C-alpha cells in the first residue's frame, strides 16, 4: 500500500532502503518501538520501509529482506497493530506463540514484551496507535470509566472480518493521503480517523474493556454468546445461574464459558456483574430522590448489597451512596 504511494511520489509518504542492520534498527526504533534484533550470521539485509503519519498515528509498511529475530517492549503510551501482508511470521506475546499469515493480525498491548521472527519473505503493515486515542474513545464516546490498564489479548478477534476491514481502512487512508494531502493534514480529520481505528480495534479484538464495550452494542460474538447477553439484559430481577443460562441458549456450560472469555474477556458471571453495576450506576444518576440505594439495587437484581457496593467502588471509584448523594 505505502510502497505504491511512495513510488508515485505522494507527499508525506517516506521511503527508506538500507542493507545495514544498525540503520534499520535506528529508523524502526523511532517509528514503532524500542527493540533489538538479531540477523544471525547474515552480513547484510535488503530492508524496505515505507511510512506515513496521520496526526499521532504512524503507519509503517516494512520488509527486512533477511531472516531476523526481534525482541521489543512497547511503551505504555502506544498500541501496536501488526497485519501480515506476505510470508509467515512467528510472534510470541503473553507467553503464547502465534503464526501470522497473509491478512492475519495481532495486537501488542502497551508496556508488554514481544518477540518476533520474520523471514526474508515476510512483509508487515504495522500501525502505532496512541493509547490516549483508545481511552478517549472508551471514556468520552462510550462513557466507560477508565479504571484499569488497556490490554489486548493476542489472537482473540471476532472472526476473519477484522483483518480484512483493517487492511481496507488503511488502504482508504492511503488513498486519501494521495488525493487530498491538505485535507488529511487537518487535525480534526486526523482525530476522526484515529477514533474510527480505535473503534474498529476495541470493538472487534478482545481487550480489558470488551465486556463493558459489549454493553454498548458490540455483537461480534457467536450467536450463543449474543443470546446469553440478551437473556442477561432481560433478567434484571432474576437470579442467573450459568447452568440455566447455558441450557436456555443450547450449549454446554464449558462452551458458554469459553465463548464469553474468548470474545468478551470475562466469564458469564463477571458479565452479569458488570451489567448490573452499569444499570445501578445509571439508576443512581437518574434518581430524583424518591428511592434509596437498597431499593435501586433490588430493582437491578442485586441482593448482596455489601459485596456489590465494593464491586461498585472498584469500578466507579466511590460507593453507590456517594454517587446518589452527589446526584441529589
Helix-strand layout with pairing:
Blueprint: H1 2-7, E1 14-18, H2 21-31, E2 35-38, E3 47-54, E4 57-63, E5 68-73, E6 78-86, E7 89-93, E8 96-100, E9 105-108, E10 113-118, E11 123-130, H3 131-141, E12 152-157, H4 161-179, H5 181-184, H6 187-204, E13 205-207, H7 210-214, H8 223-234, H9 242-249, H10 253-264, H11 268-286, H12 293-299, H13 305-316, H14 320-327
Antiparallel strand pairs: 1-3, 2-5, 3-4, 4-11, 5-10, 6-9, 6-11, 7-8, 7-10, 12-13
Helix pairs in contact: 3-6, 4-6, 8-9, 8-11, 11-14
Written account of the structure:
The structure is a single chain. The chain is an alpha+beta fold and 328 residues long. The protein folds into 2 domains: 2-209, Jelly Rolls; 221-327, Orthogonal Bundle (Arc Repressor Mutant, subunit A). Helices cover 46% and strands 23% of the residues. The protein is built from 14 helices and 13 strands. The chain has helices at 2-7, 21-31, 131-141, 161-179, 181-184, 187-204, 210-214, 223-234, 242-249, 253-264, 268-286, 293-299, 305-316, 320-327, and strands at 14-18, 35-38, 47-54, 57-63, 68-73, 78-86, 89-93, 96-100, 105-108, 113-118, 123-130, 152-157, 205-207. The strands form 3 sheets. The chain has a 6-stranded antiparallel beta sheet with strand order 1-3-4-11-6-9, sandwiched between helices. A 5-stranded antiparallel beta sheet has the order 2-5-10-7-8, covered by helices on one side. Strands 12-13 form a two-stranded antiparallel sheet. A hairpin with a 2-residue loop joins β3 and β4. α4 (161-179) runs antiparallel to α6 and α8 packs across α9. The longest helix is centred in the middle third of the chain and has 19 residues, at 161-179. It is elongated. The chain starts with a helix and ends with a helix.
Amino acid at each position: 500500500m505505502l510502497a505504491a504511494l511512495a513510488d508515485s511520489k505522494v507527499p508525506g509518504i517516506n521511503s527508506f532502503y538500507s542493507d545495514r542492520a544498525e540503520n534499520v534498527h535506528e529508523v524502526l526504533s523511532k517509528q514503532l518501538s524500542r527493540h533489538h534484533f538479531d540477523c544471525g550470521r547474515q552480513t547484510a539485509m535488503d530492508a524496505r520501509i515505507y511510512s506515513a503519519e496521520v496526526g499521532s498515528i504512524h503507519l509503517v509498511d516494512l520488509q527486512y529482506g533477511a531472516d531476523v529475530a526481534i525482541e521489543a517492549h512497547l511503551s505504555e503510551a502506544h498500541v501496536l497493530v501488526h497485519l501480515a501482508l506476505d510470508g509467515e511470521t512467528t510472534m510470541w506475546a503473553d507467553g503464547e506463540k502465534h503464526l501470522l499469515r497473509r491478512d492475519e493480525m495481532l495486537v501488542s498491548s502497551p508496556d508488554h514484551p514481544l518477540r518476533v521472527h520474520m523471514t526474508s519473505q515476510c512483509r508487515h503493515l504495522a500501525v502505532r496507535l496512541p493509547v490516549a486515542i483508545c481511552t478517549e474513545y472508551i471514556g468520552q464516546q462510550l462513557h466507560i470509566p477508565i479504571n484499569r490498564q488497556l490490554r489486548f489479548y493476542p489472537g482473540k478477534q471476532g472472526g476473519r472480518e477484522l483483518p480484512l476491514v483493517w487492511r481496507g481502512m488503511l488502504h482508504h487512508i492511503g488513498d486519501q493521503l494521495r488525493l487530498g494531502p491538505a485535507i488529511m493534514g487537518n487535525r480534526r480529520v486526523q482525530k476522526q480517523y484515529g477514533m474510527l481505528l480505535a473503534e474498529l480495534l476495541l470493538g472487534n479484538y478482545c481487550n480489558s474493556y470488551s465486556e463493558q464495550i459489549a454493553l454498548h452494542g458490540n455483537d461480534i460474538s457467536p450467536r450463543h454468546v449474543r443470546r446469553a447477553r440478551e437473556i442477561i439484559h432481560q433478567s434484571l430481577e432474576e437470579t442467573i445461574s450459568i447452568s440455566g443460562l447455558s441450557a436456555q441458549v443450547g450449549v454446554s456450560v464449558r462452551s458458554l464459558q469459553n465463548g464469553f472469555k474468548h470474545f468478551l474477556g470475562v466469564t458469564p458471571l463477571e458479565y452479569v456483574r458488570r451489567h448490573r453495576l452499569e444499570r445501578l450506576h445509571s439508576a443512581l444518576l437518574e434518581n430524583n430522590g424518591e428511592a434509596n440505594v437498597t431499593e435501586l439495587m433490588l430493582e437491578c437484581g442485586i441482593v448482596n448489597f455489601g459485596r456489590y457496593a465494593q464491586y461498585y467502588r472498584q469500578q466507579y471509584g466511590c460507593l453507590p451512596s456517594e454517587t446518589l448523594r452527589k446526584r441529589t
